[in-house]
Every structure is written in C-alpha cells, then in structure tokens.
Specification:
4-stranded mixed sheet, 462 residues, 10-stranded antiparallel sheet, single chain, alpha+beta, 31% helix
Length: 462
Amino acid sequence: MPISPTTPTIRATPTIRATPTPITPAAPAATPISPIGRLRTTRRTATATLTAALAIALAAALLAVLVPAQARAAGTTGTQPPARTQPPARTQSPDPAQDSLPYDRLQRDADALRDSGVTGVSVRLTTPRRIRTVHSGVGDLGTGRPPPDGGYLRLGSTTKTFVATVVLQLVAEGRLSLDDTVDSRLPGVVRGAGNDGRRITLRQLLRHTSGVPDYIEDVVPDFSARGYLENRSTTYTSAQRVALALTHPPRFAPGARWEYSNTNYLLLGMTVEAVTGRPWDQEVRERILRPLQLAHTFSPGDDPLLPRPHARNYQQFEPGGPLTDTTLAYLPFDGDADGALISTAADTSAFFAALLSGRLLAPDQLAEMRRTVEVPDEHGSPPGARYGLGLSWTPLTCGGGYWGHSGTGIGYLLWPAVSADGRTAVSVAAHSRPGDEATAVRQLKGVTDLVDHALCAERRSR
C-alpha cells in the first residue's frame, strides 16, 4: 500500500552515533525465547505473551538503506548489557515536591525497571492537575546521556488503535459496516490455503477473531543480529505481506476464538484505501492528527530514521548475548497499518485521552470499540485482560481498569494507558529488550506494575 510522500515539518535528521564500547554483561545465561515465538508475538498488544512477544521483536527498530556512513553509525556492532554495579542516571521533571509520595513511587518504579536490565526508561504521567516525566538509565550507551524529554518513539502496534478509529469513523459515516465481509471491500484478496474473505467480517479483523494467519514470521527469516542487519532494508507492499500470510491455513474458523494477527490490520488499512481512495496514513493524518494538533505523530513510510531527540533502542538477540543498536526500523514488518507510526509520549497520551473522552468517535462507535472479548490465558496476558476493536483493557488492582494498546519491536516496548474517563494517562517506554524469557517476563511485570501504581495513586488522590 502506498505511503503518503508528505514529510512532516517537525522531522529532523537524527545524529547517529557510533556503537558504544562493550560493557561487561550483567545477567547470567537464561532460557532463550524461540525466534518463531518472538516473531509471532512481535506486535501483540501489550496484553499478549510476556514470554515471547515482549522479549523481542515487535517492529520498528532498524532498517537501513542509508548512505554507508549512516549505516555504519547505526550501531551494528554488539554491546554487552550495562553492568548493575554502576546504576545509570535518573532524571525527573521539575517540581517533584508536589504530591511527592506518588511522584517518588513513579521514579522508584522506573528505577526498578532499569535495574531489571532495561538500558533506558521514559515515563510520562498526565493528570488533570499536572504533567510529570521521569527517566532512568541511559538513552545512549555510547555517551551515557539520559533518555531525552519529549523524545520520539516508535509506536509499533499502538498504530492499530489509530487505524481502528478511522475505520469506526467510516462506519459512523455509513461508508462501512462492521458486518461487511472482507471480500465485499477487497474482492478476491483473502483466498488460498483455506482462507476465505467471504466468511470474515471487518469486526473480526478489528478484534483479532478472524483466524487470518500472521505474516510476521514470513518476513523475518533469521531473528539474530546478523539477520536483522541483512534483512532490515527489505520492503514489501501491503498486498505482498498479506499474500505471504495467506500461504498458511487459517488459524481457526472466523469468530471461533481470539488470536492476535498483524495481518488483520494490513487488511483494514487496505480497506480504508479502497473506500476513501487514500492510504490509511493520510486518513489518520486528516481525521485524527490534524484535528487534535498532534504535530509530532506521523507515518515515516520507508524512512528508517527516528527524528531527534530520541533514545537509542537496543536488542539482545540471545540470552547473555551482546546488545545490538536497533534504532533504525526493520522495514519488513515496520511500515504498514499494523505498526508504522512514530510519535511522542505527549502525542500518544493526548490521542488516547481524546479517544476515550469521546472526541474522536460517536457514542455508538466508541461503545463498539470498547465491547471486548477475553484474551486467552495461553497468550500470557495479565489476568482479566480483554480486547475490543483495536483497543485493549487491563484491570487495576484498585478496581476498574484502563484502556490502551501496547507496541513492541526490535529493541523497544511502548505501553500507553489511559483511565476509563480519559482524564489520566501514563506512557512507559523501555528502550531495550532482552533475549531470555525470564527477564522479559520480569520487565513486563515492571511495566505493568508502574502503570498500575500510577493510575491507582492518581485515583486515590482525587
């Protein structure tokens, strides 16, 4: 699917630094995560598999069809994980004295996530009273600088909520129906190996109950540092990605159960273009980004760079192995409607707050988005997690729950969350991913604990 050639005025060419000097590894060897497991779970919603999905791959981290100097500077050489004996820096936004107890807890939780092995952590908490940001660790292993305030982030699968919002807006306009079959909008596209678009509805695509197989493992022939470097610049069209997925049989009959598949949102992006005559990212820009004045959110197309400022992302491809700088995008699965967007924590939180407060969707469509199904236990979700139409729900220990949609990729994890009324939002970014299951589980728990503590503390303070 074509990507809008328009280049946002806010983008700047990032300074790419050379690979840092190796550091003594801190973690002992542990149980590896299978490459296929990592790939399948790459773009799972934050609710999805802690074990495989988070541990590695979700899209967006490295790609270079750059000039040689840029490619050399992209960080292709391995680095050992930072030693625990010298804790990285911690930084806070001004005025931590106000509500110091929950603020200190926010910093402690970020530090705990750093201590679990994440190179750098960025947190932004937005409440009706104030905005707080905390950082822990480093944003660049070579320079030791902390993660920047307002840094650009790859959204990965968080992109899906933007796409789902556009689809539901088209439903409100009468241009689509959630009960439309895929074949009625994309005739003949979903065929082969038992897949049949005449039996699959748009609602099932949005909710991941379609049974359509995932394409991710087809575009990652070698999940290793070498494979990443060799394949990161390969590009595919939406139709090509879908065709790869459809060489596999359906995972189950449409509507029979829930299973995350990135292919669902490729098909939704193609549907948006078929109905509007414009690529999905242009519709996102016109319908969401411009009305909300989200000037720091955009689809980069096949440009692998992150604008400045940004923290660098690092991936450990095997237990106890070196860290590889994966700041550049991995284009085979990072550049489409399932996970292409780049944004900032501020823009992402503003989007979710506007969505949940009813500024983007009519009541009927917002209710449809929030009508959820249970996420099966085998997907490693937090207990009680549920999934709607491009939106996930996670329970809070203090009662109720929060909405959001995580995004992960090669070298990063993003976890945006917003209260049910849209008034409080927290965004957590981890700028590295581990190579073993135990560490991945521990780090994900650190992220979910931080979000839970922050949202529950804010509720108690009202």
